[in-house]
Amino acid sequence: MPGYNLTRIEAAARAELITVHGYDITLDLRAESETFDSLTRIEFACSVPGAGTFLDYIAESVRKVELNGVELNPAEVFEDSRIHLKNLAAENTVIIHGDSAYSHTGEGLHRFTDPVDSQTYIYSQCEVADARRIFPNFEQPDLKSRFVFHIIAPAHWTVISNQPTPEPTLLDTPDSARWDFGVTPIMSTYLIAVIAGPYQRWDDIYVSTDGRQIPMGVFVRTSMAQYMDHEEIFDITRRGFEFFESAFGVPYPYEKYDQAFVPQYNAGAMENIGAVTLTEDRYIFRSKPVEAIVAMRANTILHEQAHMWFGDLVTMKWWNDLWLNESFAEYMAHLAAASNTRWTDAWTDFLASRKLVGYQQDQLPTTHPIMAEIHDLADVEVNFDMITYAKGASVIKQLVAWVGQEAFLAGVANYLNKYAWGNATLEDFLGEIEAASGRDLKRWSKVWLEEAGVTTLRPIVVERAEGIYEKVSIAQEIPDVYSRFSSIPHRDLPPIIVEPSLRPHHISISGYVLSAEGLIPAWTLEADIDGACTDIPELTGQVIPDLLIINDSDLAYAKLRLDEGGQRILPQILCRIADPLTRALVWGSLWDSMRDGEISTGTYVDIVLKSIGRETSSTTIQSLLARLRTTILLYISAEFREEAQVNAAVELLNHAKQAEPGSDQELQFFKAFAGLACTPAQLELVAQVFDGVEQLDGLVVDTELRWELLTYLVAAGIKSEADIEAELALDTTLSGLERAAGARAAIPTIEAKRQAWRTGVLDDTISNATQRYLIQGFIRVDDPALLREFAIEYFAQIEETWATRTRQMAQNIINSLFPIRSVNDPEIDILHMTDLWLDRLGARTPALRRLVLASREEVICARAAQRT
Fold it and tell me: Is 255 a catalytic residue?
């Protein structure tokens, strides 16, 4: 937003000038209003007496600013998001009294009233730079300090912060109390936590390796307490502590560990020190979840735990190393899950749900190096993506394979001990890994962290007549996709050039053969490959296996191809591959080959429908079903789309009926069938299941599934507004209200779509969660012509949206409402419309431009796929 930014240059200059000794913050959360009283005292040193600096503060108003005992005129020193302080002393005390605004969009201090019992709940979300929405501060990660919080709130509330919760002091005002928290360890502003309301809690203890008893708490709002499976949350958390303390060689560094599941949350979770917040909507299960979501919750819990050491104890100096924070936590979470929980196939889940998205984002014109240059806060928002998470974690996984896990973890332990309670950089981290492993990581860092893009690995096989290999080589290729980026309209801007290097890879190569146990590896060898072509002499004279896999165990970050023989027999043998990770590799190769035009969309759909019924990995099934839907709706040409959708629904229903009753597969296949059902008979069956007239053995049509089926039926014109109201009467919760909003947005009339557009795009009072469900319902249409007028509205509106809405709300609109379904509308040339808008935009708002460019590439991909 204008006036809300902070540049790296400004932050570096301020860090040279200022040392922050401590914050003392009082927040009064009692009033039922849109603002809360915020009183802050900050003590800090200035290395150049007489100089000036500024505090960051986004507030409705500032009542008082006092610097070193002298009151300043707020109107003169408070501007946009800054309080300017001049003529500083060597040691300074500033007191600011302001009115901060509650958020309903998930940034700063979010306030929510539960429709079930009218109870109010509050929680903070401060990453990247939203602590300044709660209290004035020096909002940058390298100005660490200590914090003391005093929270005034209704006496019956539970109040949580980074330090253990003290006994409250009752105040004279009825039902009022004050919680005076102890001083925190040294920490960054974005890691503070304030969580308040009548939360229900559960308690447990973890005994640390240093003998301390670490209190653990789990919290959720009262109306959701019946669904809280706290025993599993504690079990995962305890296993995480066991693994991380052993792996890092450093005991948990804080006094307690709370986890609060909160409503209307923008992210999956946030690693606030000692007080993690997690999304309630996704991770508290009112109905039976698919196992993929349960596994994702476990991974998220472990991810945030890993941050307690890497990110919290040792924090990046500036946001350009945010990728390292997230990539490391992502890697360690999956390693912990695979090593010390029941989710032993965590790396399969990583490949199926995360890494494939990373590959896709790395082939967009908006791709960027993992170690992106972050000039300001606006850059952070658009670089917080699957390149940051998935590609970064993949590259760390490859680094571990290269230097060895023991050496890697020894380097991590040295890093954590050396930089504890301070800030560090990528160079500091790699220095410790180099010292522990003896490897020179300079070239590795350059080609993997400082260059964008992905390459393709393809086996080149020469066979002898007697069924053995004459020669096997691994070719490394630069995908053709990058060559078209330079033609994107770029008025006032340089053309987009992405030129990935032919990088070094450490890979496993396996030959799989059919056996009674399925397709299993007969032999495996490891190889280092580099450049355009690497010979594998060990395979000369080797008997040709049934299937050759050249990136077995998924060590490398690269697109994978099969040899011609493997590609030819794959439809017959894919479902017989015994190892779920290897299957996920092959599934990913098929998807990528289809998007690259190497196999047809029809072939891809046929293989998925033939083999998915034998798939056992819940996350792989979930990923395949999402990609199957995308292929049918966007990638298959118009003359074949309806037939493909009908046939896919038929096959998915068959898979659901053939699955074990009550199984994860049955639930996933039936939901996918319902989402693609389009013939009168198919839709009638969905309606009968919804109404309880028809049943599938073992399938429980519970609350969440009812809303999902109802939304499908509304979009198809089978159910109406009256049915939505009837369902809402049965589910008057927050979730019910949000899902009803989504169902109304799915009504297939232009009037309903216009109302959804007005509410979801133009209404700045809507909550973040309601907006997400509205958008999901809005874009669910059978006839893309229903959205035709909104393609024009989209390009007319988005620049204003970017300028006036909070970043998360704006990105929801710009990413999710891009008119991609118009690629199937013969009356609209959506690519031409996009290019005209890009040309008009020019060099304005680069971050917004990047978001639209990413969606433009999906149009290109869809058009190309429809021609295959």
Answer: no
